[in-house]
Amino acid sequence: MTSKASADPLDFLCVGLNHETSPLEIRDALVLSESEVGRAIQVLRERAGAEEALILSTCNRTEVYARGASVADLPLFVNDLLREIKGMDLGARGHRLYAFREPDSVRHLFRVACGLNSQVLGEPQIAGQVKDAITLAERSGGSGPVTERLLDAALRCAKRARTETGIGRGPVSSVYAAVNLATKVLGHLADKRVLLVGSGEMSELAMSHLKDAGAAQFTIAARNRARAESLAARAAGRVVSLEAIPVVLPGADIVVCATSAPGTVIEEPAVRAAMKIRRNRPLLLLDLAVPRDVDPAAARLPNVFLHDLDALAVIVAQSLEQRRAEVPKVEAILEEEVRRFMRWHRSLELKPTVTAFRSSFERIAQEELERHRGRFRPEDQSALEALTRGIVQKLLHGPTTRLNRSGEEGSTGLRRIDAVRELFGIDRREEDDEDRDAR
Amino acid sequence: MQSLVPLLTTVLPVLYALAAAAYARAYAREDSSGDRLGPLALRAAVLVHIVYLSVRGVLEGHLPLASVYDFLSATGLSMAVVYLWVESREGIRTTGVFVVPFIFLIQIISSAYGNRLSPEPVPLRPFWFELHTLTAVLGYSAFAVSAIYGILFLLLYRDIKANRFSHFFRRMPPLEALGQMNVRAAGGGLLLLTLAIALGVGWIQRSGTGSLTDPKIWLTLLVWGIFAFSLLAYHRFGWRGPRAIYMSLVGFTTLLLSRVAVDLFFHSFHSFR
């Protein structure tokens, strides 16, 4: 899209880049902080003439949404803006921004909010990021009636996608798959004891997910005592050395191993001995390490469930496949919401609103005239019609004049148009007329 | 009232079939958390079943447990009741697809072959002997439900061990829950069977009818012994997982075979012939 950015002041445009169009190093360099977003919105309003603007900037995308921008080439403007703020000229590096006009810009935002455009299909965090974007836009003076309505619609679409389809179902990370497996084997985790072997990032992530799933009793066995204690403090857990694993193993129901040890840390005889002490209560061993921390022979013991990253990858792959199968359902919801938004958005055009506003009064006058015609003499009919017409014209004059000025008053004018349509039920009547015509 | 019997005899298997279909539909969907059609249909079938047996009881003047088909029908009803109790206690509805079809099968056999009012057999007349029969039926049903959960446990256990994460894996309740349902149902069955045996032995001694050398009694004691041992092994000797389940399945298989053996090979007061 390089032609005139906005022939229609109502038109909502989207310009940006994401994980599909740009590599990580570019995206990383272009993530905007809150203050940078504020500054960018200000520039869009002052120099690009945008009536409304919001910016969605995460590790996977930086996208500018703007209404009413009057610059000739919005993608070029945004490219220059990013160069100004972040010191990076995308064009010079051979990268281009994508651009959409309505309704594709609306459709794109809804797809993003539903997680259809995410690296991990159906991920839920993006909806929160979209919500944060509108908050920032409000603070920076970039929001208006259209952005507010647009974001409401996007979040509603995302909510419908999550509740009416399976787009968010199933684990899509190894650690989350591990926790999922733990609940499948052991049921409720509230009374289960967890042994974390290792104190690195994986262990931290595992602990966080296990806590969310209800686990509350943690023991951490690690070489780096300081890091282990910091991790343990977050869960009121205790710390032991790696050498103490055979001692604490019998007391654990779930063992998550994620060390960087070059060989195995838990051998089969230790597991066998632990099972004897546990009286064969089920033991789940989740080996998230490469190379593996747990002796594979332990898997042969009865009531011992040993799963490594390959096994968890199977669960993740199945979840993703199921989510992909849900995409058509999400697309159907999305199209419905896009149509709904576009119908509302188009209704904000001034002329049709003024016409519909006047028609609503004239229709009422005509209906009442017809209803009471029989009460008056035929010779009085024309005087009656003139009287009714006069009353309606006088009533309409002031509001119509103010409504006509709305086209020049930016967001304030749009709010007024929206309010008139709502107050006088214009949208409802138009929908009824459309349904009648369709039948 | 008499005309109700053939009508209900036909309607019952249809209701259980509908309940089975509803549970199957919920099982096939990935997310059926809001799907209550199966439990509702099963409750409706149970209600109609109770009406059916009550009507027959009123018309026949005794508990409708005089033939093997009556026994099957009563077993089906009590399996449904036991299953609904387990389902509401555990909050798990995805196993209904494995239980309700059995109930349907039992009822359709009963309806097809046992759809006539049976003559009044002598042993069933005293109330407390009827209680013996009832507790035995409930006990056997609990063992049947326990066996179904045991099989589901073994299937899920093998899948998890083999890293097979299919639709079955996703739809089943936690493995530990299946194990507990197996143990609880077997425990309930053992209690009821104990009561049934006590009532039966007491009746023999009081009435002078029957004999303690009846093969059915000894086979039932054998079944009782197997289940008692399996529960003792579970609680005291640490028999968990597949080992405990196999033991309870041995008990249930012995129970099935003993019922068949009594009816086919032995002429005793316990036999329905």
At a glance:
Chain A has 439 residues and is an alpha/beta fold. Chain A has 16 helices and ten strands. Chain A has helices spanning 24-29, 34-46, 74-86, 104-114, 125-139, 145-164, 174-186, 201-212, 225-233, 245-248, 268-277, 309-347, 350-372, 381-405, 410-423, 426-438, and strands at residues 12-18, 52-57, 61-67, 98-100, 193-197, 217-221, 238-240, 254-257, 283-287, 304-308.
Q: How does this model look, in words?
A:
- The complex is a heterodimer of chains A (439) and B (273).
- Chain A is an alpha/beta fold and 439 residues long.
- Chain A has 16 helices and ten strands.
- In chain A, helix 6 packs across helix 12 (309-347) and helix 7 (174-186) crosses helix 12 (309-347).
- Chain A starts with 11 loop residues before the first strand and ends with a helix.
- Chain B has 273 residues and is mostly helical.
- Chain B contains nine helices and no strands.
- Chains A and B meet through helix 7 and helix 12 of A and helix 7 of B.
